[in-house]
Every structure is written in C-alpha cells, then in structure tokens.
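User: I'm new to structure prediction. If I give you an amino acid sequence, what do you actually give back? Let's try with this one:
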Amino acid sequence: MITVLGGHSLDAMCYVLGEFESLTATTHNARKTIELRDEKGNKIRDIPLTSHDQMSVSGVLTSGAYASAHLRGGSYKGTNLLWEVEGTHGELQLVNL
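Assistant: Good question. You get back a string of structure tokens that encode the predicted 3D arrangement of the chain. For your 97 residues, that looks like this:
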C-alpha cells in the first residue's frame, strides 16, 4: 500500500534535502484486512492485506543532517503530508491536508 506513494515522497525529500548517507528502515502490517469496494463506494467484503502499510526510515543525509520519515498506507483523517525542517535560521513546514 505504501510502495508508490512512499517511494515518491522519499524521492522528493531526498531531492530537496539530499540523499541518505546511511539509514535504517522498518516495515510493519498494522492492519490485517482492507475493505474491497465497488465503483459506487459500497463495501463488498474485507480481504487480507498482504503488503506493508507502515514504514519508518531514519538516518544521516550526505549534508550531515539527520532525517526521519514515517509513511502509512490507507486513508487517514488527519494530515496527508507533513514535512518539518528545522535549521539554524528557523523552521519550515510543508502541509497537505
């Protein structure tokens, strides 16, 4: 569930902030099933979720800065994308609701 979106998000982060020099990553299945819906959005049934729906990545960038990311699959009622960059001259937030 997080493969394409997660890859693009991490690629954008690395494009802006620099590549990882070293990193640690963990994946997890938080949900065991996912809802299968028809074209009108009506639930048909639950099916087994066989791909990871949670991933965390942390490490040191080539600039020496530390970065961490938590990616999750599925729908979420909160913020869909939140980048927080803290630097010596202030902080920057990029938010997509």
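You can read the tokens as a compact description of the fold. Here is one thing that stands out. The chain has a mean pLDDT of 86.
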